[in-house]
């Protein structure tokens, strides 16, 4: 049931590709700067429209990128004329929850290929022959399970310097159809798992006063959609937890060098959401594309490599979701209807994270 990759240009042509091209041309200060310079070199005066208007536009977009850069520098206590030190991967121990499948598995294998020490916590073993990956069976929704696994990890591998809270599960049911076991599993894995992992491993980071915590949430933590109540609420809790943790590390623990990165992706092409359905029209596919796991992994590794706190939102459309609730209700409802979000789970089948009482998918067929 896993989504199949496509290779044709039309299938891969979407708004993210357009934004990427524009960011290196029309919205790039370095590119725009060449326009007035070109006309000045041809004898035009600065007061001419061909020079004046591009110069004004250059000043506007330069201000935008400058403010964005200053915000990032301020958040990470950096200097105006200094760059943060690159991460020394040879000295890192990366702990990944839910690392036996999906994005977590790809991240574990990618880092292990760099000879990085990787620890995977999951209820299922990870399929790998890489000796740099160490697996510990652990139910992250259970504090005692996490506590026991943490003791083994610290004694056998060492204190993790990077924590990637990635484990997740989705039920895909209407509210009245959710059983107490469903709700407990959703919040246990998606929310409490983050708390238990941090409670077990954060003290080691606080001692060293450095590290990096990656919290994988979802753009659905910012918006509401039908048949996803428990999942969306669990991810909203992670977004709030990330923000509070940042201030707790800065103000209370005095550990600003422990970085925090929040990942809020849209639909990822992994088995967990393989049976989700979207409107088949080309406009939806262009404006709201799904994202490949490798894209998430690249962005996470880049954030870790920079050793800077940040928020990763991808694809491009996800950047607008935090502001959706501030729009007039009729505009928001129009966008919601056009996205098909309230009907995308109509034929959903739970593939990953199935409990024993749920049995195999389709009765094992």
Could you characterize the architecture of this molecule?
The chain is an alpha/beta fold and 365 residues long. The protein has two domains: 62 residues; 270 residues, Rossmann fold. 44% of the residues lie in helices and 11% in strands. It has eleven helices and seven strands. The protein has a seven-stranded parallel sheet, with helices on both faces. Helix 3 packs antiparallel against helix 4, helix 5 packs across helix 10 and helix 7 runs parallel beside helix 8. The longest helix has 29 residues. The protein is globular and about 75 Å long. It starts with 8 loop residues before the first helix and ends in a 26-residue tail after the last helix. The N terminus is likely disordered.
CATH superfamily heading of the largest domain: NAD(P)-binding Rossmann-like Domain
Q: In CATH's first tier, which class of the largest domain applies?
A: Alpha Beta
Q: What string, H for helix and E for strand, traces the elements in order?
A: HHHHEHEEHEHEHEHHEH
Report strand order across the widest sheet.
Answer: 3-2-1-4-5-6-7
Task: Tell me the helix content.
Answer: 40-55%
How many domain modules?
2
Distance between the termini: 13 Å
Q: Work out the helix count.
A: 11
Unreliable runs: 1-6
Shape: globular
Q: Give Rg in angstroms.
A: 23 Å
Q: In this structure, how is the largest beta sheet organized? A: 7 strands, parallel
Structural class: alpha/beta
Quantity of strands, as a count: 7
**Strand fraction band?**
5-15%
Second CATH tier, the architecture of the largest domain: 3-Layer(aba) Sandwich
CATH topology of the largest domain: Rossmann fold
